[in-house]
Amino acid sequence: MASEPTAESGTDITASESIASVVEAYERMDMELSRYLLFIVLPSLAFFLGTVAVALLVDLPFSIKLPIPLLGGLVLFSAIVYPKLLVSQERVEMENQYHLLMTHMTVLSTTNIDRMEVFRKLAEEEEYGALSAEMNRVVQLVDTWNQSLDDACRRRARRIPSEPLADFFDRLAYTVNAGQELSEFLLSEQQVMIQNYVTMYESTLDNLEVMKDLYLSMVLSMTFALVFAIVLPILTGTDPTMTVGAVIVLYAFVQTGFFLVIRTMSPYDPIWYYPDDVRPDGEWSLIASLAAGGLLSILLVVLVAGDLFGGAPGLTALLPVSSIPRPLYMAIPVTPLAIPGLVFRVQEERIKSRDDEFPSFIRALGASETAKQSTTTAVLKSLRKKDFGPLTGDVDDLFKRLNMRLEPDRAWDYFTANTRSYLVQKFSEMYLVGRQMGGEPKQLGELISENMNHVNQLRQQREQATVTMIGLLYGITAASSFAFFIGFKIVDILAGMSLDLTASSELNVGRLIHTQVYDLPLIQFMLLGIVMINAVLSSLIIRTVDGGHKANALLHFVALTWIGCAVAVLTMSVVGGLLDV
Questions:
Q1: With contact defined as beta carbons under 8 Å apart, do 267 and 408 qualify?
Q2: What is the residue-averaged pLDDT of the chain?
Q3: Is the distance from CB of 53 to CB of 69 less than 8 angstroms?
């Protein structure tokens, strides 16, 4: 009778698979294995042994000894697994661009060019990164080493770290060897390609959900640790500045780590397009909003400094108030940064609206060109009168430029630049190239429309995940600030209490409550600093999950800063009113 697998055997299998994946990564390196071991791994091993020797031989406190070999072990571990990290990075880069490359390849295959010319053109598209490099390797095997296309694809399939792409190359090699046309194969592969991309995209969103729960638990743990670091020194007499500072560093380290992990895991799906040689409409308004927000913020910093340090008129000299709560001095100077945040957010919503309308436009354009057997300019003359939402004005401008006999490439460049959409630019370029090379307009329009509709549906799922993340981070900010300043206000009240030590000669209160160890203004400044750090990192996390423009983080940064500081003011006011006797 066969024995059932045990937990130990499952662990052994997992460990062996991990080791095998690392060994495979070494085989995929461009550098020779012997050179990597000699120049990277061996020096790292020597460094690790040196740190162990220092920890054992040098007379140092244990708290200093322990991190030394840990640093050496980290360096050695990084050197060993670095090839695996490179392979993983290459795989992620391939899978992020997979759907665009497959769509581009299908569009080119339906034109009147040779199948090897399809690979050569894709190899020239530097924007596809690792995928274009892979296409270039196939071209080199065929052109330089005189291999057949099916042999080249089969050989590269064994070296590609991405499983979906490796499967595609295997099927392509079999199809080419069987004599099927490249266009027929790629058109039949569209559903498989789309399903693979949807699966990869949704899996990354599921991973973000897991990271969200882990992030919540870790931040709440750090919040409790910081509250204890504030309150416990009043009983133990230890230096609270050191304990609070240590926990704040750990808190910032945890949040930074989660931000980097989330940035690595988030799907690559940019919204904005940044043209090189065309200045889009509305560009100056975006630049002006950034300048206005930055200058006003600097002005408020100067006014706040005048209130806090004197020597110049401050905010209280300009406002009808006698004093401003100290936490608000942190929030007021960053408020003007919401101006560029709002401007960029409005522009981004327009881009998303154009993305929603583009599939209908490109499908109608392709179908009309095929039905009328006419030029793009003649078809656009009637299409520009139809309602394509925010895209209507751009379609009208495209017709005017083409009607003025502007070069088609240049006219479409202005069209994509003014839409500012990354997807519109990529798919418009594919349609234009396909048309210029003799592709059927209706087929091109339907192919591009179908693929972009799937991307738009996935973006809706990403938007839902972003809304959930925003709610989580805003809630954590409010809860953390509430906990921080409850502890701070309790310590502040105890430190300010007037205790009658002569009431009981047998009780020495000074030995029970150590209020003299606190530098309360410094502790409050440190807590406001962690509120600011939380606002910065949380806004970056939101921007990473959202996939939008970097300036979007400014709006969330301002909102999170105000939430943290306003909760701090309310908490200290309410707790002070309840406990101050």
A1: no
A2: 86
A3: no
pTM summary value: 0.85
The C-alpha atoms of residue 93 and residue 165 are separated, in whole angstroms, by 12
Mean pLDDT of the region 114-137: 90
The tokens describing 204, both together, are: 């990354």
Give the count of alpha carbons within 13 A of 395, CB side only.
24
Handedness of CA 305, 306, 310, 314 (dihedral sign): negative
Q: Position 338: which residue type?
A: A
List Cα–Cα distances, 501 to 233, 313, 327, 492, in angstroms: 21, 44, 34, 19
HEC string for 123-188: HCCHHHCHHHHHHHHHHHHHHCCCCCHHHHHHHHHCCCCCHHHHHHHHHHHHHHHHCCCHHHHHHH
Q: Collapse the DSSP code of 199 into the 3-class scheme (helix H, G, I; strand E, B; otherwise coil) and give the result.
A: helix
Cβ of 556: how many Cβ atoms within 10 Å?
24
Beta bridge partners of 421: 272
Rg of the chain over all Cα atoms, to the nearest angstrom: 31
Tens-digit pLDDT profile for residues 530-578: 999 999 999 999 999 998 999 999 999 999 999 999 999 999 998 877 7
Structure-token pair, residue 446: 């339907």
Q: Could you tell me the pLDDT band of residue 511, with boundaries at 50, 70 and 90?
A: low
What is the Cα 440 distance to its own chain's centre?
Answer: 38
Q: How high is the pLDDT of residue 17?
A: 61
Question: Which among 149, 240, 204, 316 is positioned nearest to 514, based on CA atoms?
Answer: 240
Higher per-residue confidence, 329 vs 86: 329
